[in-house]
Amino acid sequence: MSARQMRLLWLAPVLGLLAHIPATNAAIQQTKGDFQDKFRQLDEVLPTPNVYRNAAGEAGHQYWQQQVDYVINAKLDENKRRIDASENITYHNNSPDTLKYLWIQLDQNKFRPDSMSALTDTFGGNSGRGPATQAANGDSPAKLSLNALRRQQFVADHELGYEIKSVKSGSRDLHHVIVGTLMRIDLTTPLKPGKSVKFAIDYGYNIVEEDAVSARSGYEHFPDDKREGGNDIFLLAQWFPRLAAYTDYEAWTNKEFLGRGEFTLEFGNYDVSMTVPADHIVSATGELQNPKDVLTSTQRDRLEQAKTAKRPVFIVTEEEALENEKAGTDKTKTWRFKADNVRDFAWASSRKFMWDAKGITQDGPQKHVMAMSFYPKEGGDLWKKYSTEAVVHTLDVYNRFTFNYPYPTAQSVNGPVGGMEYPMISFNGPRTELQDDGSRTYSLSEKRFLVGVVIHEVGHNYFPMVVNSDERQWTWMDEGLNSFLDGVAGREWDPKIPWGVEPRDVVGYMKGSSQVPVMTQSDSVLHLGPNAYTKPAVALNILRETILGRELFDFAFKEYAQRWMFKRPTPSDFFRTMEEASGVDLDWFFRGWFYTTDHVDISIDRIYKLRLDTKNPDIDLQRQREAEQDKPLSLTDERNRNEGRKLWVERFEDIKDFYDDNDQYTVTNKDRNKYREFQSKLKPWERDTLERAVREDKNYYVMDFSNLGGLVMPILLEMEFADGTKESMRIPAEIWRRSPKAVSKLIVTDKNKELVSVTVDPRWETADVDVENNYYPRRIIPSRIEAYKDKKSKDRVKMDLMQDIKTELKTEDDAKKGEASNEL
């Protein structure tokens, strides 16, 4: 700063001197009664620790959870697009409670026209995963999309939801009541703690067309395949009646399934047999138990070869899949899979699938894992190159941050679902485009989508398939944590891909009017993507890179993952573990980011340059005179001088007095005597302190900051000096603990380090929504003006450049002819 800028005196309080500093922002903005303690302990709102969940965020010494085992026999009727099945369920009551009834999830009932989901779907609202309609706007007519009409027509034309044929315990019928997407089964004898009960359910349902209703599973039809009538890909999930969870914190988690809030489930062992057309390939949760019954000897040999291959090996090649999809069969095969200690089971079936696989070796109980992909010809080279390799990459990164993958397979399946996860299997959507020359190409956007969705959905095997959080209640506990980790894995794959976890990716949402707290229940969130995925992922990214640092964060995060492997954590367990394991008070962070709609907006309002008053009149009065002379000259005085006008005292020099040669800054002996008297009263240490400060003549800067967004965060500074150097300073968030609206900070620099500018959060680490008030002095806001035509340019990331590059280059004459035809 130049000497012309405001000069104020910094004076040591111990000397009893005064500093000419205006009232700070804190004094101006803080009014009686409006103080908010942003650092109140979070335990005030968290559940009280108990024998099931202790104060450290660990499972308590009496922690329990139920277990449910399933033996299922299912048949896929390809022509009717229907599942008929029977399941034998063993329910183990590990709780301390006696249970008179059990609650079953019937997720397929969501598609019934009289379901709560259908009846509460609003016109033009934020309804969930399905195609949204558009509400009227002013005088414009209301709009109804063709997708919405298609969904209505499909639901009207098909009988959807479960057909429950029987519920029995042995030969005895069990009384049951269906309540929307739930069913209560009344037990003949109350189930006491430590006991188990066995019962069976026979059921069936018609599979939805996923493209028509926009679901988490369903079938996709390919009418143009050479087989008469075309082919289908079946993705089967939420396909069997499943036990609702019974927990220590909520008892039965029997909230209606509306489509957005997913589910929380019990771990158990599965033995599942699926009878499908004999030419189908099946991918499923678990390990295949009867390969000799369903695979050829060549396919079994390839599968064995894939275990140690450096690159994926085709178990079913593209040529074989193409030949397979030409003709159907009336014969069937039964594929049998087993899966131990999983919370759900899903599968996929189609004659269109090619299948590749690659083995992974790791430490731990599960030493060998098979990464596999299943996809039709429509997947093309995009899937051949990247799907299985992305699976392998995901396990490699996630293992480092959590625990070694505990299951024998990790699968990626291409079908109509854009992205959905289940234990050991995920459904992923991106595809290639068939061109006229027979080639298949894809855009950069599709490539990024495939890599990103595979990492994300396979990553869900860790959260929530092993760390079993309640998705119906707290979506962010699986989506947010997983989005954070998929961002870590993704940037190790290709940092140029926009992973959506950088602080700048959430500022638009955080300053918007439709934000709700992250802790909002899933079905009530207005914008699920930014709320449950982006904001918590960004928060964790900031916590790792800016608040805690990688060493502390990574240790605490891994501790949380390992503590809650195969258990059911709640938000309080996560918050407490991160604090306890890192050793850092994070209540302010979790309260602000997860419980409020505050945003980050720290403004640097003013910087005062202060200079020590020496009390020596020969020094201080001369400094004051220089400061007065540095003020801009009066415009009137300047013009008078330019016109040659003489001052009165210049015209009459014989009439002068003492004050014409001396001013208010003239030093007198009285001033000097007062200074000597001041020095004589100083204690030795006071005199030494003052003399050193005068000798060093350092720069004292007082910086005023305002917290305009309400969310307290560290103040990250980059200071630039007159000598061209820069220095960084990271002020912890606790600076706001007594004055959350505004604070002032004293910064001291050496005499030769003259401050010229300061930037708050120069690397955009904190999700500050307004970076323009982060500069002092304020900068001219950079932007650019671009000449453009009315026709909007395409997003080149979404363009199929693989195809466009084949276009022949036109001559100048051809180009001119094209322009002429366009004008006509």
TrEMBL record:
Region (Disordered), start-end ranges: 117-140
GO cellular component: cytoplasm; extracellular space; membrane
Domain of life of the organism encoding this protein: Bacteria
GO molecular function, one term: zinc ion binding
Domain Peptidase M1 membrane alanine aminopeptidase: 386-593
Keyword Protease listed: yes
Signal sequence residues: 1-26
Alphabetical keyword list: Aminopeptidase, Hydrolase, Protease, Signal
BP GO annotations: peptide catabolic process
UniProt cross-references to Pfam families, sorted A to Z: Peptidase_M1
Membrane-traversing stretches: none
Protein known as: Aminopeptidase
Lineage: Bacteria, Pseudomonadati, Pseudomonadota, Gammaproteobacteria, Alteromonadales
